[in-house]
Amino acid sequence: MKKPQTYLAGVLVLASLLCSVSVSAQTDTTRKKDSTLRSWDKNPARTGDVAYTYIDLNSGDTLDYWFDTERKTVMNRTTGRPVEFYINTTTGDTVYGRGRFVINGLLLQGDDGKWKFDESKVKIDGDELKIKDGNRKLKIDGDEIKIKEGGRKIKLDGDEGKLKDGNTKAKMDKDKMKVKDEQGKAKYKEDKTKIKEGDMKIKKKGDSTKIKSDSLRLNNQ
User: How far apart are CA 29 and CA 120, in angstroms?
Assistant: First the structure.
């Protein structure tokens, strides 16, 4: 049986994933040789081997950002403005701020020096945007975001979010989340977590944890 702490950690990871709408970087390294990468590699703001340094692609500034879960986009903490494109200097990936979707090789540099989507590869129609890159897909239609990557699917619409990753399913709204997989199920709300795994039930509230099963009963205050 999986340790309760391991399953609980998985619940919190899923919560983080749904809140941040983050999609992992693609493994195709050939596109990282394009001009999108070279534009920041020569940027003096990138010095040394600083882990997880981010560069605003259009301004060239080192980026202090936060992710606005309501707008579902990356925001510049210094300017308070949305960040359209940025570079993760650790992985070398170009990222779209809306949905934090890796977009290596999908941009063009305009005559004004600003980067924009290559519309021969990205479909844009008003508030609707579609990207297909191998087995990775992004669709944005107003406030709705859909992401597909391999066996993983994410849908966000307003305060609601859904995730399907193999046998794992998660559903979240603004104040609670439910997770279910072949190991069991969990419910997370504010500082309360309930987990059922086989004959074991776990309740966690704040620093208090209660575990109950046919062979074990534990209260940890």
Answer: 21
How far is 60 from 75, CA to CA, in rounded Å?
15
Q: Whole-angstrom Cα distance, residue 213 to residue 217? A: 6
Predicted confidence (pLDDT) per residue in 176-209, tens digit: 888 888 878 888 887 788 888 888 888 888 888 8
- C-alpha span between 138 and 143 (Å, rounded): 13
Give the integer Cα–Cα distance in Å for 81 and 103: 21
Do the Cβ atoms of 100 and 107 come closer than 8 Å? no
Q: Are residues 134 and 26 in contact, defined by beta-carbon separation less than 8 angstroms?
A: yes
**pLDDT tens figures, 9-59:** 555 555 555 555 444 433 332 233 333 333 333 333 334 444 568 999 999
**Which amino acid, 21?**
V
3-state secondary structure of 4: helix
Q: What are phi and psi of 30, to 5 degrees?
A: -65, -35
Q: What is the pTM of this model?
A: 0.66
The first and second tokens of residue 56, run together, are 């605003």
